[in-house]
Amino acid sequence: MIAVPINAQLVSMSDGSVNICEGMFFDSGGKEHNYGSDEQFTLTIFPEKASLLTRLIFYEFDLNEDDYLAVFDGNSSRSPSLGVFNKENPVPKSIKASNRNQTGSLTFVFHSFSMSSARGWIADINCLERQSDELSNTPTASENVNEFIVFVSGIVDSNH
User: Are 17 and 47 in contact (CB under 8 A)?
Assistant: First the structure.
């Protein structure tokens, strides 16, 4: 069972863009279903204000063998890559836009192959204030980027 706060916006993987600083991000199957086979989507998540940076905290990440989620530090797939994540290389627990990123946005490219489907992902969307120096993109003690989430079951809300 997954608990989602009532006031949180729910964003499922699709083509397009959203401006959001409080919500949950899911694969195309939403919080309760698997993503589909033969999917290819690109979604950009912008913060609500230019002074903010988009950050996602992943609670669940489960993809089939050849499927992948690529993340870019900006408003397109031509922005600097933050990584390509799959079954063998799971997404870090926390991903955020860098201070150098003028839009504060993150772009996600998802691809699943035919005859392929899995649980997908659940992530919390929030925003951080842009820091004044470039060193601010260095992880803090409370933000361990080497921690990975592969599968979680139980109650998940935006406070955990």
Answer: no
pLDDT tens, the chain, 160 aa long: 444 445 679 999 999 999 999 999 999 999 999 999 999 999 999 999 989 999 999 999 999 989 999 999 999 999 999 999 999 999 999 999 999 999 999 999 999 997 878 999 999 999 999 987 544 444 443 344 444 444 444 444 444 4
The HSE-up count of residue 119 (CA atoms within 13 Å, CB side) is 13
Closest Cα partner for 45 from 82, 74, 69? 74
Q: Is 15 exposed, middle or buried, given 0-12, 13-18 or 19+ CB atoms closer than 10 A?
A: exposed
